[in-house]
Amino acid sequence: MRFAVPFLFFLLLQPPASRPKPIDFKETTLANGLRVILHEDHSTPVTNVQVWYHVGSKDEKPGRTGFAHLFEHLMFKGSAHIKPEEHDKIITNAGGVSNAYTQDDVTVYWQTVPANYLEKILWMEADRMTTLDVSEEHFKAEREVVKEERLTRIENPPYGDIYELLYDNAFQVHPYKHVTIGSMKDLDAATIEDVREFYRTYYVPENATFVIAGDFKADQALEWMRQYFEKVPRGKPLTRTAALEPPQEKERRVLHQKPVPLPAYVAGYHVPADGHPDSYPLVIASSILSGGRSSRIYRSLVYEKRLALETDASGNFAENPNLFFAFMILNQGASMDAAEKALETELSRLGAEAVTDAELDKAKNKIRSDYAFGRQSVQDKAQALGHAAVIHNDTATVNSEYELFMKVTKDDIMRVARTYFRPENRTILLVRSK
Amino acid sequence: MKNQLAACVAASMILLASCAKPAPKPEMPPDPPPLGRVDFPSYEKKVLPNGLTVYALEYHEQPIVAVRLMITAGAERDPEQLPGVAAFTAALLNKGTKSRSAPQIAETIDAAGASLEASAGMESTNIMASALVDNVNVAFELMQDVVMNPAFSSEELAREQQQAESNLVASMQDPDFLADVVFWRVVYGNHPYAHLQGGTLRSIAAMRRDDLAKFHATYYAPNISALAIVGDLPAAESFKLAEQWFGGWQKKDVPQRAEAQIPTLNGRRIVIVDKPDSVQTEIRVGHSTVGRKDRDYFNVLVASYILGGSGSGRLYRTLRVERGLTYGAYASVDPRRIAGDFYSTTDTRTEKTGEALSLVLDETRKMQAAETPAGELNDAKSYIIGSFPLSIEVPNDLANRLTTVFLYDLGDNYLTTFRDRLAEVSAADVLRVGKEKISADNAAVVLVGKAADIKSQVESLGQVEVIPLEKLDLDSAVLKR
């Protein structure tokens, strides 16, 4: 029998006219624990392949911040049959796109290629999952590239370090305290021995999820997956040790003085993890606060009072409890006190009085439209599937969460606003010139 | 297991190879089977009696519609003393019409879960709407109203001016922005292509309601515009919507563009914008090159890919992979009607500025010195040709492709024939444009960084001028107050 493990089929009913189309998928797990999620879409002859390794910057050991991301760069430095940088070269020469990203919780390698390249891509991913081969010389050169990336993203732009400072103050013990890029000191301290250990620990089949979306036949793709991955042995059992962050009991306020063109403000409120029942009303709250030009904060702070140039209120929902941001860059000459007060007024009002029916409808319409517009390309779809599988550990949530958003009530919004938008639950960072 | 671990620890001093997990070596897979030719999806085109060109393309993956109206007038048509008029005209469109206030427009769009945005580039103004297909009428009704009946209220203009000024003040500390705008000024001098599209501090303050109304009255005309409708609608339905909402738009006599001469660079001019708090230097190197319809355009495009079109380009390989000098190094050609920009871009830590710039110049010179090896040429061509299917996946991209054909008058068969034209580009063509259309010697170099540390590193590479950031004047062709 070629297919010893039966497919799980998720057949969804034909949706009513205006509901975004659900993503149909097939999911199976190989004997070594490697998870495979397949979505066929034959509209354009392209295929997106994403490999989600369930390891991110929150898994880094002390003194090695930035390592998960540095490691991501090294995955392009060659394996038994692929020369350094050749992975990208094969893909770009085919007209495809390839990249990777590292976050707190995951490291994701993705490529969109003309559909005829699927088998070759799977073979290449198998090669670097099993035989990564990084020389000391390449390791050191790539570390310099990552340090340049830190300069480009964090240190050189005027507001580049805001979130690094906010997280450092908002978290005491949980590893979300440090941002993914890590510190220069820790990057310099990393060794090739760390590379070896990290690879053996986390880049193992039972810690990987393959998502393939696009123009292919599911049976054929699964056959290739078995051919190239089934014999890859499991690693040692994984233990995850992210420390539990104690509840914040007092507001923290930090003033960061640096030469910025305009003052900036960001507050981070602790909120629960992605997929927690409260995360859905919080997303709706975010939309009412700052989604579009008719949203409350835009109307009040940008349009009517002209206090802010840019504003945003949104949650960074992650595998572990993270932060909901209220952010603004002030207009020239605007008073920080007035702006802070106006922003706080909007957040506390959400807990004090019910939103209107029109606001709730509007926010749900936005979700409806985000589902449709956010799932156009095969990359969008694979991304949504990977997130559901790895962060929620339940791929079906890629479709079922939609109903949870639609069920949010005005009371839910008031309740979560009261629960989380409290001064003692937040850390405020003010950035201004001296 | 333990023995193997010990062996690995020892081996890791040199190579990680021997630490490979004990997995069977995968067999080499067969080369990918040939992919059938991928064609641009079929679409229909009609010209309405008022001259508006309409494209309709069906897309059924999601119940959505993307609508893009392109008016072929942008910042190059700004009055000479008032850069930013095209951008302000576009920005004010959805800030009020004769019958709707800005908040009413925002409320209607948001309530429908739709979007409506307008912006002006150098050569065109684009109004883009997207909506779920059941709200397509809302999108068209508002798009028509903002395009045909904008109010340009003084109150909204004042608000926009304050926002634009704050934005520009913030951008003036952003090395990326500074490098781009100074580069354009050095390359194009007084030509409209040097215009700061969003306006300068002076022009933003000087902008009056009448300037916007006049730009609108002069250039917003159906006969210089195209409307692309891509979505979950039958083409006949799209044409009906186009006629219903834009059929009554009045045709106008639009003045011809005044074709100003593109200045030529003689020698290498290095401008350092001094930003003493920098830890990195932002680098641009380049000059103007052929226009979009020039017969050498595809040759120059292929040359730019070889030099630095992707992670396989020469700049990336030399600066990032081999030397670890930067997070990215690329070259590209930004096309425009009469002349495009050919430029390289990278950034590096302050102390490596001279080395990075020398390498960019060396790699550019190599494009003129020898023919590109056949393999490298084919890789670049197959990248551009192969990426075509990826660029026609979603409605917005499809609409953009169609309006671009209109903008440059590329012809109805362009989207089906351009790959054949690209395939014809030879190593001799690339070498010839390397000599005639690309130069490291007659080029503008812009460096944004800490002048005290970088000036001495680049002095041997050309004539250096340092402009302190606080003296930088984007209104002046010489860039200084």
Distance between the termini of chain A: 72 Å
List the helices and strands of chain B in order.
Answer: HEEEHHEEHHHHHEHEEHHEEHHHHHEHE
**Coarse morphology of chain A:** globular
Structural category of chain B is alpha+beta
- For the biggest β-sheet of chain A, the strand order reads 1-2-3-7-4-6-5
**Structural category of chain A:** alpha+beta
Beta-strand share of residues of chain A: 15-25%
What's the Cα radius of gyration of chain B? 25 Å
Largest sheet: spatial strand order of chain B: 1-2-6-3-5-4
Tell me the total number of β-strands of chain A.
12
Given the structure, what is the number of helices of chain A? 15
Level of helix content of chain B? 40-55%
Low-confidence stretches of chain B: 1-25
Spatial shape of chain B: globular
Oligomer: heterodimer
List keywords for this structure.
heterodimer; A: 434 residues; 7-stranded mixed β-sheet; 41% helix; 18% strand; globular; B: 481 residues; alpha+beta; 6-stranded mixed β-sheet; 17 helices; disordered N terminus
How do the helices and strands line up, and which of them pair or pack?
The complex is a heterodimer of chains A (434) and B (481).
Chain A: E1 8-9, E2 26-29, E3 35-40, E4 46-53, H1 67-74, H2 86-93, E5 97-102, E6 107-114, H3 118-130, H4 136-155, H5 162-170, H6 184-189, H7 192-202, E7 208-214, H8 218-229, E8 252-257, E9 264-271, H9 279-290, H10 296-304, E10 308-315, E11 322-330, H11 336-352, H12 357-373, H13 378-390, H14 397-406, H15 410-420, E12 426-432
Parallel strand pairs in A: 3-7, 8-12
Antiparallel strand pairs in A: 1-2, 2-3, 4-6, 4-7, 5-6, 9-11, 9-12, 10-11
Chain B: H1 2-11, E1 44-47, E2 53-58, E3 64-71, H2 85-93, H3 102-111, E4 115-120, E5 125-132, H4 136-148, H5 154-171, H6 175-188, H7 201-206, H8 209-219, E6 225-231, H9 235-246, E7 269-274, E8 280-289, H10 297-308, H11 314-322, E9 329-334, E10 340-349, H12 353-369, H13 374-386, H14 395-407, H15 414-423, H16 427-436, E11 444-449, H17 451-458, E12 463-468
Parallel strand pairs in B: 2-6, 7-11, 7-12
Antiparallel strand pairs in B: 1-2, 3-5, 3-6, 4-5, 8-10, 8-11, 9-10
Helix pairs in contact in B: 2-8, 4-9, 10-13, 10-16, 11-12, 12-16, 12-17
